[in-house]
Design goal:
- With 60 residues, this protein is mainly alpha-helical.
- The protein has one domain.
- The protein contains 1 helix and no strands.
């Protein structure tokens, strides 16, 4: 069995590096969700020069 966790390097890894990695992964996930929302919103908009959909005749 490895005693890595008992070494100074192992202690630093588990106490500092691993929590930092977890925080950065959570941050990356949040940023990807925000980016996806922007991309979905942009693809829902009509391209320039295309007519925008107006209200239906029934709504008038």
């Amino acid at each position: 069995m490895s005693d890595f966790f008992r070494t100074q390097m192992g202690h630093r890894f588990y106490e500092s590096t691993m929590p930092s990695i977890a925080r950065e992964l959570a941050r990356l996930n949040d940023n990807l969700e925000r980016l996806l929302a922007v991309v979905e919103r942009e693809t829902a908009k009509p391209a320039e020069g295309e007519p925008t959909p107006g209200p239906s005749k029934e709504a008038r």
